[in-house]
Amino acid sequence: MSSTEREYHFGIDPDRLGRAASHFARRVARDARTFAAHLEEHVGDFARDVWREGACAWRGEDRGHGEWRPPDVRRIFEDVRGVLTDVIDGIDELITSTFGTPSEEPWTRVVCNREASCGACGAALAAGGEAHVRRTARGTEFRCLACGAPPASAA
Ligand SMILES: [Zn+2]
């Protein structure tokens, strides 16, 4: 009775639980990306507002203080995007530590949302560049496009 042997943990099939957990992680990651895209719009609007307000103030009264320099609004975006990346990584760790990761996900070709390095040749992978990636119980593995994703049998 292999099906009952597998359902040893309160009747929960570990494979099904793993699939549900990775589905959940993917949905969280997708929402985080959507949020990041919206955030970029908001930061753009905010940067325009800051620029307009600052330019008005400069024209009005602060001419004596030299050229007005806007605050680095872009850095706010970079910081918040870093927080989102941490959230996504944190979700992965939470799922891994809570449920374990019974089956490793297949390799997928993605656009990196942060800098990484190829696990095979060690080449640096820039954020925004394409790479092969998979999540495992040990963390996220990367392969550069030159190395490519290893076959499913090679772990
Ligand atoms: Zn490589």
Walk me through what this model shows:
The chain has helices spanning 2-6, 14-60, 73-99; strands at 108-111, 116-117, 124-125, 130-136, 139-143. The strands form two sheets. It has a three-stranded antiparallel beta sheet. A two-stranded antiparallel ribbon has the order 2-3. It starts with a helix and ends in a 12-residue tail after the last strand. With 155 residues, it is an alpha+beta fold. The longest helix is centred in the first third of the chain and has 47 residues, at 14-60. Mean pLDDT is 75; it is low at 1-9. It is elongated, with a radius of gyration of 22 Å. 51% of the residues lie in helices and 13% in strands. The structure holds zinc ion (ZN). Zinc ion binds next to loops. The site of zinc ion has 8 residues, from loops.
First-residue to last-residue Cα separation:
29 Å
Mean pLDDT: 75
Shape, please? elongated
Q: Which small compounds were modeled alongside the protein?
A: zinc ion
Radius of gyration: 22 Å
Relative strand content: 5-15%
Please report the number of helical segments: 3
Describe the sheet with the most strands: 3 strands, antiparallel
What are the segments in which pLDDT stays under 50 over at least 5 consecutive residues? 1-9
